[in-house]
Amino acid sequence: MSTADPLLRLDGVRKHFPVRAGTLLSREQGRVYAVDGVDLEVHNGETLGLVGETGCGKSTLARCIARLYDLTAGTVWFDGRDITGLSRREMRPVRRDVQLVFQDPFGSLNPRRRVGSIIADPFAVHQLGTRADRKRRVQELMERVGLNPEHYNRFPAEFSGGQRQRIGVARALALRPKLLICDEPVSALDVSIQAQIINLLVDLQHDFGLTYIFISHDLSVVRHVSDRIAVMYLGRIVESAPTRDLFESTRHPYTRGLLSALQVPDPDAADSRERIILAGDLPSPTDPPSGCRFHTRCPKARADCVRTDPPLTGSPGRHQTACLFPLEIGEDLSLASPQVHDTVIGGAG
Amino acid sequence: MTAGTVARQHTAPAHRRAIEGRSPWALGWMRLRRDRVAMFCLGVIVLIVLVAVFAPLTAHLTGHPPNEQYRSTGLTPDGLPRGPSRAFLFGTDDLGRDILVRIAYGARISLLVGVAATALTVVVGVVVGLAAGYLGGAVDTVLTRLIDVVLSVPFLLVAIALVSVTGPSMTVTVLVIGFFSWASMARIVRGQVLSLREREFVEAARSLGAGDARIMFVDVLPNVLAPVIVYTTLLIPVVIVVQATLSFLGLGLAPPTADWGGMLSESQAYYTTAWWFIVFPGAALLVTTLAFNLFGDGVRDAFDPRRDR
Question: How many domains does chain B have?
Answer without folding.
Answer: 1
